[in-house]
Amino acid sequence: MQQVASTKGRGPYYGRMLHHWIKSFITDTASRPESTLGAGNASRLDTEPGLCEELREHLQSVGKYVKAQDIVDYVNRPEVVAKYGPSISICLKTAQRWMESLGYTWATTPTGCYVDGHERDDVVNY
User: Fold this and answer.
1) Residue 4 in contact with residue 18, Cβ under 8 Å?
2) In which band, very low, low, confident or very high, does the pLDDT at 46 lie, cut at 50, 70 and 90?
3) What is the distance between the alpha carbons of residues 22 and 42, in angstroms, rounded to a whole number?
4) Contact assessment for residue 59 and residue 104, using Cβ atoms and an 8 Å cutoff
5) Exposure of 68 by Cβ count < 10 A (0-12 exposed, 13-18 middle, 19+ buried)?
């Protein structure tokens, strides 16, 4: 430990303390710090009670064709900002992730075009 202390520009006391800290870290498992990796990645949908249900109700009230921009517009409403705070503001990509977690899927609307046989005489007469 004296070599480590000297490379840090510290004296022998620091080397002894470093040895003591390492020894206590290894022997006492309760003093070991827990990893906080990924702890800051919690979604507001999971942490805010009631937000998920409010978004579902809003998207159902929009109608058949909903889009992620509807969520962005909803969370920017003054009453929603007053309820959840100004940090509720989200970007479009977050709204797309929220839609996926709410169970919405992306789909194209069918155009209603005939693929085959629509120019036959009996079809044209019909």
Assistant:
1) yes
2) confident
3) 33
4) yes
5) buried
Dist. CA 24–CA 22, nearest whole Å: 6
Q: Are 42 and 55 in contact (CB under 8 A)?
A: no
CA distances from 96 to 32, 76, 106, 113 (A): 39, 16, 10, 29
In DSSP notation, 62-112 reads H-S---HHHHHHHHTSHHHHHHH-GGG---HHHHHHHHHHTT----PPP--
pLDDT of residue 26: 85
In angstroms, how far apart are the furthest CA atoms of the chain? Answer: 102
Q: Give residue 30's pLDDT band: very low, low, confident or very high (50, 70, 90).
A: confident
- E strand or H helix that includes residue 119: none
Residue 88: phi and psi, rounded to 5, are -75, -15
Structure letter (DSSP) for residue 33? P
- Whether the CA torsion 62, 68, 73, 74 is positive or negative: it is positive
